[in-house]
Amino acid sequence: MTLTFAEAPALIAAVAVVAAAILDVVEFEIPNTLSIVVAVMAAAWGLLHPGFVWWSHLAAPALMFAFGLLAFARGWLGGGDVKLMTALSAWTGLGGLASFFLATSICGGGLMLILFLVRRAWSAMRRPVPARLEVLGRDAPIPYAVAIAAGGLWWTALIALK
Fold it and tell me: Is the full-model pTM beyond 0.85?
């Protein structure tokens, strides 16, 4: 399989999303540059593919950002999570926004369940959490970029299967 120039933005965006997930696990932070890359690559995709419905791909991030502001204000999501979800919604457009959001929510529930079980097991061993495994600490934040990346990849798979 050969990657064409027109497909490159999708690959670059996917690498940026996976990098965001990894950095969120390791540092509990998502660099703004990665979200910017994802959004810019959505625009590049639109420029390279006729039929891209610009208004839809601009309205979806606006809606996601509005939801994200509410979620951030209530402590449901971190700022980096909101920015990454907003950038990814530039790829989904309005037509794919609900399925992306649902996929991300399901992946988030799975992530929280796994972390709860692993953290509980680690705590039961009564051993301190090594610095490099801080994500296993009982009170450590949830690296939700993992769920966002998984939800984005799930959404992409759903689109590819159509």
Answer: yes
